[in-house]
Specification:
Number of helices: 1
Number of strands: 6
Order of helices and strands: HEEEEEE
Strand content: 15-25%
Amino acid sequence: MNPADIESLVEEWMSLGFQPTAEVDGQRIWQDCCVVESMLGGPTLPCEWLELSEDGRSAWLKGTQPGEIKWRQKWMAQ
């Protein structure tokens, strides 16, 4: 997805009541969702509740075990 697609998706979630970000000690952080940029190696803002695989291609809730990886049916990891 490109940045405009991500922005549109986050705005849609906001319209549903999600609070994407919060400010903690003067720093913006991810709250109800998290945008991860795999090419840059991680979240675009700090995200305390998410863990990433070493290759940065999958993520899961921090403190839990990663589960089965899901993806769109017609998409293959490259």
